[in-house]
Amino acid sequence: MGRGDSSKYHIDRGKFLVLASGIGRESIALAKRQFDVTGVEHVEEIIAIAQRNAERECVKVEWRQQEMSRLSLPEHTYDYSLLATKMYRAIPTRQLR
Asked: What are the helix and strand counts (H, E) for the chain?
């Protein structure tokens, strides 16, 4: 979320799916705003760091270790999803985007 403000978009509650969540920066910021957040990251060591960061900030985030291009979730599970522009650009080939 960084410079942005969720209220700017009239979003004040719901379930967020954060793809390529890394060490949890966006996931934690959303959880602090009372959203239900699931962060998806494929590197186990990075998830461990994200968990520690969330615990330090006293917020609850569900972390899933999974490759986002092979993500398997039931339909209608989340209200919103977030993928940072820089991560979108890192997806090789338009077919996978």
From this structure: 3, 4
